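User: Hi! I'm working on a homework problem where we have to compare a predicted structure to a textbook description. Could you give me the structure for the chain below?
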Amino acid sequence: MWESDNRKERKKVVKSGIASGVIALIFFVLGIQSTILMVKIGDDGSGSVKLIDTIYIQTESKNEYSNRTNLKGRSDYINPNSRSYGSKGQYNSSSKRKEVGEFKNSLFKFDPNIVTESELIRLGFSLKQAKSIIQYREKGNKFYCKEDFARLYAVSDSMMNRLDKFIVVKQLDINLADSADFTTLRGIGGFYAAKIVDYREQLGSFAKIDQLMEIRGIDNERFDQFKNSITIDNQHIKRFSIWEASDSFLINHPYIGSLFADRIIKYKELCDSSEWSLEKLCLNNIIPEKSIEKIKLYSSSAESAP
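Assistant: Happy to help. Predicted structure tokens:
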């Protein structure tokens, strides 16, 4: 009887041990499977295993942080140092797009002499190309026309064709510029800048840009270097009438001079005002036709008697 009870007790112990072993085995297998699963999730295909990291996201209502774990390399991984977040700790995609160049390859008018590095990148240039363009300017170089910009190594033919109609090189109004402004023109130094200002004062103003070639030393070759960089606004042309101008003005004007001024003065004294016109001056050989054409640049629609 005693032996029977003993055997039963031993069987219970054995069964209990087996049950404990099975449970331990189950937990062991589950542990291995969990480890394998985590390694597969963290593997980005490069052969390296990504470690679990802990990040913090700020909540909307409290200045507190909640932990959550994630694996680097997963599509939903959030790097708090590189992304922008909204008030609820959500990723702000519009802010990020702006940081990396949301508007890259956009087109807008720009002056290559003042365009910024970020604007060049928006236009489609790489960071390296944009920096080289800025460095070119920082060395004291200037773009006088579109062709100057096109000559840069960083500006390919395809890029130039794409940007051509958007390039606006600021032109210098030769009726408003001072000596210092003129020295910024290619081929014009202090000497010629002073001569331009002096000739403008004699004329009263310039009416056409090619009048600069009337200045000794500014020939076609020199003029061609800067003609695309200058302009004239019609509202800044100082017009006059030879019938109302003073005698001293006529004498000192480069297109009239003392000889023709004397003839005009006598003509005005001898002829009735109804006969006053530039055409009559030419017909009566008082002023040559060439001079009349130049004077017309400053006259009103018709130089007739007042």
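For your comparison, note the following. Residues 25-42+51-88 form one domain. Confidence is low (pLDDT under 50) at residues 45-91, 93-101. Good luck with the assignment!
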